[in-house]
Every structure is written in structure tokens, then in C-alpha cells.
């Protein structure tokens, strides 16, 4: 297993011996900076495991009382450029969503760091793009192995950083991150080209695909390592070098991933990770003339800004944006399967997944029965500490986001809607140390009009609306009435009906009688304001390469 002795450094309230190891929960260790003033200059420790172990035994006696007394420790992250960790001139605060306290310092990078990353990526590109698909595949498989070996450490970091339950991080986020590398390690070996003959002209035509060069990757805060690797893996598999910007709200697992790259055989400069905010580092990356392709997952307003900045350079864009996803439940649906799946689709990861359901249309004949059972099932979802194995939901990402989500519930109430459970109805019980955290109960709203902002706008939190419908034609029209078109679910025992409705829904992904079952070979992406382009095996390969037609006269 990969030890966190190689991971972020701590700023402590007291000075410690150089390289001191600190024991935290679950057997994880963090290396301390020499002093508070020294943190910007700390690099990867060269201590042997044996030396570290001896120092640990000595230092724990002095540090454990400090930790027990509630002394604050701050993780200090660094950019990863050209195979090296580099400090930044300024840092921004990152909060633990479960406590509302600052626990991490993230580089506040800008143009200077992007220029350095572009230079490193440019220098690494010729050698990396010249490697065979088989060689690149081996590197990706080694990365997958290392992520799998580090599952517990990465899961704990992801849970603390994002607020999601540790159970979800262990079972979804980190396994999927490893799978992303392994999947594209395999798919890169199976792409084909086209070839045609023109015998009467003695000509042969064939196509080849070549990497685009430097790929700019911007990933969101809701599934940090999961979606970062979903972009990195196909980009480097195709022979590109990359500059990635994770969300400044959830940067820790991206930083931890950097520690695995050398061991996996990733050459310096192939993967560069620059931390910071969108207006500073994101815009510098998107507008850089030597970065011809941008893959972005996030909000529509940010996508609009990316489009504006990239237009002068005619960049290739992949924009995976939000959704206002409907679930359509017909009267012949199997409610024993439908209700738990729809609760999960509404509130998984605190509702902070672009594919989550936020509009539930139920055929009128079963509306009352569904609503009663759905609210009962929702109330069984426990909100608690992310580390609690019995918790179904953890904390939302930030105080600002929590207030935004709550504001939608307040607007719905002001418009005359009924709040059946959750926010403002049920009591949330939390330990004292977590009462400043960003927790919210799963909330069900009914008696809400289609024109309401709760039915039109993406909330991206644990809030869903349940409304009745009468006919198939009516519900399709209502489901398609929003500007988004990412995902939808249809529930019915009538297979012909599910096929018919699925074809008429304006959504890039439609699940029938299930939710979030994914086949990575198939396209992923949305219609309308939910984005541009598709991701997946062939689609990602096509996006991160340029096609060229070659004609040979013989």
C-alpha cells in the first residue's frame, strides 16, 4: 500500500523535528514541515522508511498531546510541473465541509505557473507521442495498479476534502479512477483506421490519427479524482501531454495522484497539475495559444466564458455541463425497484452529481402511493459524518453552495409549494464539532409548478420535486421543457413504451428501469445547454486526436 508519509505537509502550532511523522486516524501518516515559515520550500522527503519509522516512535510522544488538545493542522499543497513539486507565491484556503474549518492551503496559481506548465508539456510531447500505444498502455495500467493499491488513503482524503461519505469514496470514486486508467489502457490498443482503393487511378487512401499536442483539462469538485482521471487517461493514452486544473475546492487527491506518476513510469512533463481558481489559472490555461484542446466539466456560465476565450484560437472544446434530469414513472412501474433507485438518483453524493434526478413525474393513478413511499424512503437516508459507515449522505461542498441550495427550498415555499421532508421540516442532528459543517437533509418538494425555478434551474443538491402527470405525450413535453438535456430515467413494465419515450426525450443518456449503469465504450454527454461533444472510448480518442487523410499513388 502507498503510505501517506509521502503526502501533504502540515503547518503546526508548534515546531517539530525535521521530517517528523504525525499519526492521524486509521494508521495514516503525514510528514510535517520543518517550521511554519519553511512550508513553501518543503520538497519530497528522501528519508528511508526505516529512518521514518524510528523518528515516528520518538515524535509521537510529543505530538499526540497537541493533536488531542485540538491543535489545527493545515495541509500545504504544491503545483506539479515538469515532474517536480513547485511552491506558489500565494495560497488560498480550502475547507473541510464536515466542520466548516480551513484544513488545506491550495496554490493560487496564475499565468506564470501556466507558462511553466506549457513549457514542460511542450518539451515532453515529442518523446511521449512517439511511444507506441502498447508502451503508453503499460504506463496507464501501472497507474491503475497504484491507484488501486492506494484505495484506502485516496478514499479517506477524497471524503474529507469533498464531504462525501467514505463509503461512496471507497466503492465508487477511487475504484472508478483506477478503472479509467485501465479502460483507456485497453481501448487505445483497439482503434482502427480507414483505407480505400482507387484502382483506376492507382491510388490508395488511408487515415491516421495523431495527438493534438497539449490538452487543457478542467475538472469539477463533485467527483474530483474520478473525473480528473476520466480526462487525463484518454488524453495521455492518445499521446498528448496535459495540463490539468482541478477544482480549488477539492485538490488533495489530484496532488496525491502526482506522487504516483514517477513510479508508474510517466515521464516528467507528460502530466502537469496546476492548482488555483478559474479566473486566474483557468483563464490562463484556456486562452493560451499553445493549448489547442480544452476538456471541461462544470457549470454553463463557466463554459460560456471558456468558449469566448478559446474562440480566437479555434480550439477544440468538450463541454460537459449541468442537467435538470427528469424521472418519468408510469403507473405500471415496479415501485419496489423504482422507489429506492429514485431516492438514490436524487440524493447520491448529496445530490451533487450532474446525473442526479431533480424532477420526478409520476402518473396520477399511482401518484399518492408513490409520494408516500418515496418520502418514507427518503427519511431513512441518514445524513451524518462522512466517516460514519451508516451515513447515506455527507456534507455539501461549501457554505456558499449550501446557502444556494437552501435558497431554492425557501423560494419554493414562498411560491406555495409543499416541503414534505427535509429542509425546514425535519430536525438534523449532528455532533457538536460538526454543527458548523455544510450538512442538509434530503428534501422533497411537491405542489410545484413547472415554471418554478425549482423545476427549471439546476440546484445540484439534495432537493427533488415530485409532480403528477396524466398522459405520455404530456409528460414528454414537460420533461423536454427545460434548457438542459443531459440525462433522464423512465420506469415502466411496458418495454415498447420505454423505448418509445426514451427516443423522444431530449437527453444524451436515458436509463429505463435503472439509473447510473454505465458502459464506458458508449458516448457520454448532453444535448442543448448540457454541453458540447461526447466522452467515452471512441469519442474521447477522436476528441484528443486529429484525423489526417493520406493518399499514395502507386
The number of distinct β-strands equals 26
Shape: globular
What is the CATH architecture term of the largest domain? 3-Layer(aba) Sandwich
End-to-end gap = 57 Å
- For the record, the CATH class of the largest domain is Alpha Beta
User: How large, in whole angstroms, is the Cα Rg?
Assistant: 25 Å
Organism: Cricetulus griseus (Chinese hamster)
InterPro entries: Ald_DH/histidinol_DH (IPR016161), Ald_DH_C (IPR016163), Ald_DH_CS_CYS (IPR016160), Ald_DH_CS_GLU (IPR029510), Ald_DH_N (IPR016162), Aldehyde_DH_dom (IPR015590)
Function: Catalyzes the NAD-dependent oxidation of 2-aminomuconic semialdehyde of the kynurenine metabolic pathway in L-tryptophan degradation.
Enzyme class: oxidoreductase
Outline the structure in words.
With 554 residues, the protein is of the alpha/beta class. It has 3 domains: 1-76, no CATH class; 109-320, Aldehyde Dehydrogenase, Chain A, domain 1 (3-Layer(aba) Sandwich); 325-520, 3-Layer(aba) Sandwich (Aldehyde Dehydrogenase, Chain A, domain 2). The protein has 16 helices and 26 strands. The strands form 7 sheets. A 7-stranded mixed β-sheet has the order 18-19-20-17-16-22-23, sandwiched between helices. Strand 19 (443-446), helix 13 and strand 20 form a beta-alpha-beta unit. Helix 3 (133-149) packs antiparallel against helix 5 (166-187), helix 4 (151-162) packs across helix 5 and helix 10 (335-347) packs across helix 11. It starts with 8 loop residues before the first strand and ends with a strand. It is an enzyme of class 1 (oxidoreductase). The active site is at 320. InterPro entries: Ald_DH/histidinol_DH, Ald_DH_C, Ald_DH_CS_CYS, Ald_DH_CS_GLU, Ald_DH_N, Aldehyde_DH_dom. Residues 90-550 form the Aldehyde dehydrogenase domain. It is found in: Cytoplasm.
Amino acid at each position: 500500500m502507498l503510505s501517506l508519509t509521502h503526502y501533504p505537509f502540515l503547518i503546526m502550532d508548534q515546531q517539530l523535528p525535521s521530517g517528523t511523522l504525525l499519526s492521524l486516524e486509521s494508521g495514516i501518516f503525514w510528514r510535517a514541515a520543518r517550521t511554519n515559515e519553511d512550508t513553501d520550500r518543503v520538497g519530497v522527503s528522501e528519508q528511508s522508511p526505516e529512518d521514518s519509522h524510528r523518528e515516528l516512535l520518538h515524535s509521537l510522544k510529543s505530538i499526540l498531546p497537541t493533536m488531542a488538545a485540538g491543535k489545527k493542522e493545515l495541509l500545504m499543497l504544491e503545483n506539479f510541473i515538469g515532474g517536480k513539486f513547485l511552491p506558489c507565491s500565494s495560497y488560498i484556503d480550502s475547507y473541510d465541509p464536515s466542520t466548516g474549518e480551513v484544513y488545506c492551503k491550495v496554490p493560487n496559481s496564475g499565468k506564470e505557473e501556466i507558462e511553466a506548465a506549457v513549457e514542460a508539456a511542450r518539451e515532453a510531447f515529442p518523446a511521449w507521442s512517439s511511444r507506441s500505444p502498447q508502451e503508453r498502455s503499460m504506463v496507464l495500467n501501472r497507474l491503475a495498479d497504484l491507484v488501486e493499491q492506494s484505495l484506502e488513503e485516496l478514499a479517506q482524503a477524497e471524503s474529507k476534502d469533498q464531504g462525501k461519505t467514505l463509503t461512496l469514496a471507497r466503492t465508487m470514486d477511487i475504484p472508478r479512477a483506477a478503472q479509467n486508467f485501465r479502460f483507456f489502457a485497453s481501448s487505445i490498443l483497439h482503434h482502427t483506421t480507414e483505407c480505400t482503393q482507387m484502382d483506376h487511378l492507382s491510388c490508395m487512401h488511408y487515415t491516421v490519427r495523431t495527438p493534438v499536442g497539449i490538452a487543457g483539462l478542467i475538472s469539477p469538485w463533485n467527483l474530483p479524482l474520478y473525473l480528473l482521471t476520466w480526462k487525463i487517461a484518454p488524453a495521455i493514452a492518445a499521446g498528448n501531454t496535459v495540463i490539468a486544473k482541478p477544482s480549488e475546492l477539492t485538490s488533495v487527491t489530484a496532488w496525491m495522484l502526482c506522487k504516483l506518476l514517477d513510479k508508474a513510469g510517466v515521464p516528467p512533463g507528460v502530466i502537469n497539475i496546476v492548482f488555483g481558481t478559474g479566473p486566474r489559472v483557468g483563464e490562463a490555461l484556456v486562452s493560451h495559444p499553445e493549448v489547442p484542446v480544452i476538456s471541461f466539466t462544470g457549470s454553463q456560465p463557466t463554459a460560456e466564458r471558456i468558449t469566448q476565450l478559446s474562440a480566437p484560437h479555434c480550439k477544440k472544446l468538450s463541454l460537459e455541463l449541468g442537467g435538470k434530469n427528469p424521472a418519468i414513472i408510469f403507473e405500471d412501474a415496479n415501485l419496489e425497484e423504482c422507489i429506492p433507485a429514485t431516492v438514490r438518483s436524487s440524493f447520491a453524493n448529496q445530490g451533487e452529481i450532474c446525473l442526479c434526478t431533480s424532477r420526478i413525474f409520476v402518473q396520477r393513478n399511482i401518484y399518492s402511493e408513490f409520494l408516500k413511499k418515496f418520502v418514507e424512503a427518503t427519511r431513512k437516508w441518514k445524513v451524518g459524518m462522512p466517516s460514519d459507515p451508516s451515513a447515506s449522505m455527507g456534507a455539501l461542498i461549501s457554505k456558499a453552495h449550501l446557502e444556494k441550495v437552501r435558497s431554492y427550498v425557501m423560494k419554493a415555499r414562498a411560491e406555495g409549494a409543499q416541503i414534505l421532508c427535509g429542509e425546514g421540516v425535519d430536525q438534523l442532528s449532528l455532533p457538536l464539532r460538526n454543527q458548523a459543517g455544510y450538512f442538509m437533509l434530503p428534501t422533497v418538494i411537491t405542489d410545484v409548478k413547472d415554471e418554478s425555478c425549482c423545476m427549471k434551474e439546476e440546484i445540484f443538491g439534495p432537493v427533488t420535486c415530485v409532480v403528477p402527470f396524466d398522459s405520455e405525450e404530456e409528460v414528454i413535453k414537460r420533461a423536454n421543457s427545460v434548457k438542459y438535456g443531459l440525462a433522464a430515467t423512465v420506469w415502466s413494465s411496458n418495454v415498447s413504451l420505454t423505448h418509445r419515450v426514451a427516443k423522444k426525450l431530449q437527453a444524451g443518456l436515458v436509463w429505463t428501469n435503472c439509473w447510473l449503469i454505465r458502459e464506458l465504450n458508449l458516448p457520454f454527454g448532453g444535448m442543448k445547454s448540457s454541453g458540447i461533444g461526447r466522452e467515452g472510448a471512441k469519442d474521447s480518442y477522436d476528441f484528443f486526436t486529429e484525423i489526417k487523410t493520406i493518399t499514395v499513388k502507386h
